[in-house]
Design brief:
The protein is mainly beta. It has four helices and twelve strands; from the N terminus they run βββαββαβββααββββ. The strands form three sheets. It has a five-stranded antiparallel β-sheet with strand order 1-2-3-7-6, covered by helices on one side. Strands 10-9-12-11 form a four-stranded mixed β-sheet. The relative contact order is 0.14.
């Protein structure tokens, strides 16, 4: 006797997220952007989907957008289409949900997404990197200053510095790593580039030099 496979749920909700399926499109509404990751994973599993959704703090202006995506489903030709959207919610009390739509072939192959939320004060931005355009930071003119000079400029702006070691090529490629948080480069070393790390901190990157510390595994996951 043949037993028919159970039909996938058309909707599921918990305290963190709600998922609705209509005509092959999954509409995801994040109700609690600070909920534990397992609550999102639980909801997708209930819908028969191997999706890992992470809600991450992002630079101002990147909230409610997908800042990273990958996995077997994303890399496969004809894989799913994913986009974030704003339905015009203007909540009088509480926050509007973050919303994502997923359409196309998605199921057993893993798909992971990072969706941006507003960062708390001082919280590191998940999408911070050296290639990101930041007009406010550009006006400070940190590249090519000495470390000591750059730190002085940041202090006058009410900001702190943290440090990275690496190189950036003219085409934007390159590599960097972070040493232990206690490490400080000599004040006379030159800043190669800089980027916003959080609302309170700017990363200053210096070129590698003899005697530099090795990467700190805790700072370079």
């Amino acid at each position: 006797m043949n037993v028919a496979a159970p039909e996938r749920l058309r909707s599921y909700a918990n305290a963190a997220v709600e998922i609705q399926r209509t005509d092959g499109v999954y509409e995801v509404s994040v109700k609690d952007a600070y909920a534990e990751q397992r609550r999102f994973t639980e909801a997708f599993r209930k819908m028969g989907l191997n999706v890992r959704l992470s809600i991450v703090p992002v630079t101002p202006g990147s909230e409610r957008t997908i800042v990273a995506m990958g996995g077997e489903s994303a890399s496969r030709h004809g894989g799913p289409t994913v986009w974030s959207f704003d339905d015009g919610c203007r909540a009088r009390s509480g926050a509007c949900p973050l919303r994502v739509r997923i359409s196309g072939e998605v199921g057993r192959d893993r798909l992971w997404l990072e969706l941006g939320r507003e960062a708390r004060p001082g919280e590191p931005y998940a999408n911070a990197h050296w290639g990101r355009k930041d007009p406010a930071l550009a006006r400070l003119g940190l590249p090519r200053r000495t470390v000591a000079g750059a730190v002085a400029v940041l202090r006058r702006a009410g900001l702190k510095a943290d440090y990275a070691i690496g190189t950036v090529n003219p085409d934007g490629s390159g590599g960097m790593y972070r040493a232990a948080p206690s490490w400080r480069p000599a004040g006379g070393r030159r800043v190669g580039t800089a980027w916003t790390h959080s609302s309170t901190t700017v990363t200053l990157m210096v070129l590698p030099a003899p005697g530099d510390p090795r990467p700190d595994p805790a700072q370079n996951p």
